[in-house]
Amino acid sequence: MSETKTETRTVESPTAATKKLIKTTRQFTKRKFTAEDKIRIVMEGLRGDDPVTALCRRESIHANIYYKWLKDFMEAGKSRLKGEDMRGATRAEVDALKDENSKLREVVADLSVENLTLKKSLF
Predict the structure, then answer these.
(1) Mean pLDDT, 10 residues at a time, over the chain (123 residues)?
(2) What is the pLDDT of residue 21?
(3) What is the C-alpha separation between 19 and 12, in angstroms, rounded?
(4) C-alpha angle 75/76/81, rounded to 5°?
(5) pLDDT in tens, 75-107
(6) Which of 4, 46, 51, 58 is 20 to 30 A off residue 11, Cα-Cα?
(7) pTM for the whole thing?
(8) Where are the alpha helices (DSSP H) in the chain?
C-alpha cells in the first residue's frame, strides 16, 4: 500500500509591499496617449471605416476608454461652439485682464476730459 500525502498549501494574501509593487508597476507600464493620439483615434471611429471594436483592438484600448474620449471630444466641441472657452485662459487670467481693462478705460476717460477742457480753454 502506498500512502499519498496530501500537501496543503496555504495561499498567503499579498503583503503591502507586494501590493505597492504591483501598483507602481501598473503606473509605469500604463500607456499614456497624447491629445493628438486621442483625437486621431476618435476621428477614425467617427469616420466609421472600421467598427469601433476593431479600432479599439488595433489601438489596444478598451471600448469604454474610446467612448470616454468620444464624450470628452464632443463636450469640448460643444462648449467651444457655445463660446464658453475663451482662448483657454484661466479664471484668474480673465479677471486680471478685466481689471486692467477697467483701469485703462478710466485713464482714457480722464484724458478725454482733460483734452476737452484744454480745447475749451483755447477758444
Answers:
(1) 52 75 80 88 92 93 94 84 66 90 95 92 85
(2) 86
(3) 13
(4) 100
(5) 888 777 776 555 667 788 889 999 999 999 999
(6) 4
(7) 0.48
(8) 16-29, 35-47, 52-59, 63-82, 91-122
Q: What whole-number distance in Å separates Cα of residue 80 and Cα of residue 72? A: 12
pLDDT for 4 equals 54
Q: How far apart are CA 31 and CA 24, in angstroms?
A: 13
Q: Is the dihedral of CA 100, 101, 105, 106 positive or negative?
A: negative
- Which grid cell is 72? 470628452
C-alpha cell belonging to residue 105: 478705460
Instruction: Check if the beta carbon of residue 56 is closer than 8 Å to that of residue 62.
Output: yes
Encoded amino acid at 87, one letter: R
Phi, psi of 52 (to 5 degrees): -60, -40
* Cβ within 8 Å of residue 66, ≥6 positions away: 41, 42, 45, 52, 55, 56
> Hey, what amino acid is at 63?
A
pLDDT at 14: 63
CB 81 within 8 A of CB 75: no
